[in-house]
Amino acid sequence: LRSRNALLKSPQPRPRELAAYDAPLLEHGTKLSCLRAALVERLRNEAATAHTEISGLGESLCVTFAPGNALDFAADLERSRAQEMRLRQTVVGPHRDDLSLLVDERPAAQFASEGQQRTVALALKLAQARVFAADEDRAPLLLIDDIFGELDPSRRNHLLVALPAASQKLVTATALEWRGEAGGGPHF
After folding, report:
1. Residues in the chain, pLDDT under 50
2. Phi, psi angle pair for 171, to nearest 5°
């Protein structure tokens, strides 16, 4: 992809040279997107559960994989050729893969509050930790850096309860007020 984009940025990109990069991009890009889609499928239910646990409000989270190309990647790449030449970059492929995140069926980026957006991010992290724990049959170490400022006290406490009990947790915060009700563990 990097070499293909460099060629597209050259003063006179030649179609035959550009085509030489298509086969490896198609092969590896398809594999990468398939692996990502499979991982998102594994994270989907765990993230929805974690989101409900943290929010405590019955909010729903829907996570779906948004591929950066059409199902027929080769045809999509061919159709985008004119746009690539105009923009001087590859416009379809795995580098454009994304996640669709919906809170209560609305796009989180546009409609969720800062606390809700932080809840979504934390739900994804918890889902990831749970998948890793299942794969490795051991609890992961969780590093949680100053997230409590954007969460209301209810979400803070729900988060602390939702963290895997078997995991070691290192949490940083700018203030200790958040420990009030949840307490526990040494602090420095």
Report:
1. 182
2. -120, 130
Phi first, then psi: give them for residue 63, nearest 5 degrees: -115, 125
Q: Please enumerate in sequence order all residues whose Cβ is within 8 A of that of 185, keeping only pairs 6 or more positions apart, or say none.
A: 169
In one-letter notation, the amino acid at residue 163 is: L
Residue range 70-84, pLDDT digits in tens = 999 999 999 999 999
What is the pTM (predicted TM-score) of this model? Answer: 0.83
pLDDT given for residue 17 in this prediction? 93
- Strand 98-103 versus strand 106-107 pairing type: antiparallel
Residue 128: predicted pLDDT: 94
Encoded amino acid at 120, one letter: V
Which of 70, 112, 117 minimizes the C-alpha distance to 93?
Answer: 70
Judged by DSSP in three states, 70 sits in coil
From CA 95, how far away is CA 19, in angstroms rounded?
Answer: 18
Please say whether the beta carbons of 43 and 124 come within 8 A.
yes
Residue 94 DSSP label: G
Q: Single out the residue of 114, 122, 135 nearest to residue 54, CA to CA.
A: 122
Residue 25, phi then psi, degrees to nearest 5: -65, -45
CB 142 within 8 A of CB 172: no
Q: What is the pLDDT of residue 183?
A: 52
**Residue 160 has what pLDDT?**
86
d(Cα 67, Cα 73) in Å, to the nearest integer?
10
